[in-house]
TrEMBL record:
Pfam families associated with the record: CMD
InterPro entries: AhpD-like, AhpD_core, CMD-like
Domain of life: Bacteria
Lineage summary: Bacteria, Bacillati, Actinomycetota, Actinomycetes, Kitasatosporales
Name of this protein: Carboxymuconolactone decarboxylase family protein
Span of domain Carboxymuconolactone decarboxylase-like: 17-96
Amino acid sequence: MDARLNFFASAIAGKALKHVMAAGQAVKDSPLPTATQELVALRVSQINGCAFCIDMHTKDAAAAGETSVRLHLVAAWREATVFTEAERAALELAEAGTRIADGAGGVDDAVWASAAKHYDEEQLTALVMMISFMNMANRLNVISQQPAGSYEPGQFH
C-alpha cells in the first residue's frame, strides 16, 4: 500500500508538521508518565483505526519497557487487571475524548473527576493535549493512508 500523500515532500506539510512535532515533543517531555502516554496514544489510535500510529506506539512502548501483555490488553482495558487505577482513568478519558461524536455532552463530569483524582493539573493538561494530539495525528494518517509496519522505535524523536 502506498500513502496518498508524502508529507515529507510537501512544503505546506513541512511548515505545519514542524510545529505539530514540536507540540508532540512538549507533551512527551511533560510530567505525565511515559507508560500512560503510550497507552493513551495506542488506545486513541485503536479507536480511530490508525495502523501507522498503532505500529509506532506499540513499538515505542515496547522499547521503553512496556510488556506485551499490557499492550495486547489495551483494547480491552476495562476487563483487564494489568492496569493501575490511574492508567484506567487516563484510558477512560482518552476514550471519552476520542468518541465525542458518539455521545451527547462529550466528556462527562464523572470521567473527568476520575482522571483528576489521579493526575495533577499539569499532568491533566498533558493528558488532554496527548488525547487531542493523537486524534489529529490519527486523522492525518488515516485520510492519507499512511502504511504501517516499517516504523523503527524512536524514528521521529
